[in-house]
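Thread: Newbie trying to understand structure tokens

Hi all, I'm a second-year student working on a class project, and my supervisor (Dr. K.) asked me to get a predicted structure for one chain before our next meeting. I've only ever worked with sequences, so writing a 3D structure as a token string is new to me. If someone could post the tokens and maybe explain what I'm looking at, I'd be very grateful. Here's the chain:
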Amino acid sequence: MTDDSTRTDEHDPGPDPNADTSTEAARRASRERIMADARRMRDDAKRVGRETGRNLGQFDYRRPRGPVKADLEDTHGHYPHDTHPILVPGIAIDEQRRKYSLDTIIFVIAGGLTVAFVIWGISSPSSVASVAQAAYDWATLNVGWLFNLVAIIILVSLLILAFSPYGKIPLGKDGETSEFSTFSWVAMLFAAGIGIGVLFFGPSEPLTYFISPPPLTNDPETTEALHGAMAQTYFHWGFHAWAMYALVGGAIAYAAYRRGRSLLLSSIFQTLFGKRQTEGFAGKLVDIFAIVATLFGTAAALGIAAMQIGTGVSIVSGAGPMTNNMLVVIILVLTLGFIISAVSGVSRGIRYLSSINIVLTVGIVALVLFLGPTLYLLNLLPSAFMEYLGSMFDMMGRSLSWGAETQEFQSLWTVYYWAWWISWSPFVGTFIARISRGRSIRQFILGTIFIPSTLLFVAYGIMGGTSIWMYRSGASGFTDSMEAPEVFFTLIDNLPYVEWLPFVVIIVLAIFFITSADSASVVMGMLTSRGDQEPKKWVVVFWGLVMSGIAVVMLLLGDASALEGLQQLVIVTAVPFALVMLFIIVAWFKELRTDPLALRRQYALNAVDNAVVAGADAYGDDFALQVVPTEPGDGANGGIDSEHGDYTDWYQRTDENGEPVGFDYETGEWADGWTPDDESATTEDSAATEESTAAEADAVSTTDADSGTASASESDPDSATDSEADSGPDRREDHS
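---
Reply by user tm_fold:
Sure, no problem. This is what the structure looks like when written as tokens:
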């Protein structure tokens, strides 16, 4: 008999070896599939990461690659030319379509007021003198603080702007290379700081501060007074002055070469005032203020040049003391030379002469260095610069609160200089804007402020240090009551082997006068011709004559060797434009906020922040970024209304009559078939255009800054070639 357990064991087949084998195989296959999927996902993630990196690195914002129009309307709304605002590469002034003509309102108001002033000043100089004195007293007492505040705010604001993310924005289209090589650009900035200032104020101003130091500073004619005198001179001619030029120049360059507007001061304010007001009353008022300020600021420089020439002629010829009548004759002769250069087409020759002028001025400074107290000057230059840096904040803080004597010193010197630089800023700003196209805002600001300032510190240190050394050594002719125009020629008289130098100096000053009047008149012609870079010759001559007339009136307000008349009118006429300078800061900063590059940066920050948070939350360390669609409101814009007019209105292209016209950013073609050649073919004065084109190959412009002469040299051929290759159909045809 068999029990149940035995029976059960006998009938149980036990584990099937074949079934075990198939299960293990299935498990192994499943694991392999999982591992293969993991490897494939890992490889896909790496591939996506590599492709994403390559795409981000190669994406060309100058050639928008957006969806077609229908898709754009469905997903993004309506944009001008079907282009999202962050993809706009910028617009250059020479790509726009506009008609230039004389702005009769600006011309009549600015021209009428200044001509009336000249007539009044020549017919009744005593009454003009009394009014100018009263206005000067009121301005220096009541708004002297404004000039100090403007100088400080401009310097601080530009340094903040340079080191901010906005500093990467180019003064031109995306990818546009600099029009001039760095060396050429630096040379032109250097040229902008060389001229009458070095020969007139360079020797005389430090000597004045050494003999009569600013109140509450140092004892006269001491070692401390020596270094304090150099620091005070550097303060007036250094960083603050060039910051004013950089503000106006940078804002003009940005408006013209990135936003496609005219080279006008009023163009800066379109975002602040609106297009209607910018082209209307508010814009015209800004341009009128700019013309008046430029007229009186440049006229002061012409008057100083005439004073220096008169002193030189008196010394060389032995004609005796200089008189106002002599100065008037000198101004009339030099004005005749300016008219000849303006109407006879010899501007290219004048530009070459101005380049020679720069070389001669640098040569004069070098002669003083090597024929004068060389070792003394080499020791003084670094010490004076460090004294300037160490006492800068102290000098910035002086005002009426320091007492009546300090207020008087500020009125005669610091406030006068700040007013003068403000007056020169439209003129000099336009010049440096025209030579800085393609550079970033950071390069432009830091280069414009620090390069010319440093070079001027060397030139003024040599000239001022030599005059002080000669005075302390008891050199012949040096006294404590010398007039400013006499100091330089007395300095030359004490150098060996340079008996011929006064004749060269007179020629340098005469060329300065002519080129300064020529260049400033062209800028004012632009301001009265809606930004036309080739204003009519009669307009240029008109402003040159008015400028010379104002210089005569300024000199008639004082004696032949004094600066009172020049200082009074410069300060009074600069007050309105000082307020304009503050508005320029606000307008430029506001516009930079809506720049395509600034928007791209904001989009990038939003997109990366959102992606990193979402990726880490879902995948830990193992995730990559990829561009995919999102729901409206969840994308990279971070709440930015990309369809707002602040972002889109500015790049809507229009025809000559202001009517919207289609434009293809991919090809650079206009919907109606217009090309830049069409505009040049219909230019009224084709001869002037040809002359301008020829002149462009030789020189961009000639201007005078800091009472100095600047000549724009030839553009770098390699730079121009690269620019054309990069820009394709967008290559420049600017004949400025």
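A couple of things are worth pointing out once you decode it. Confidence is low (pLDDT under 50) at residues 1-12, 52-76, 681-736. The longest helix spans residues 17-58. Feel free to ask follow-ups in this thread.
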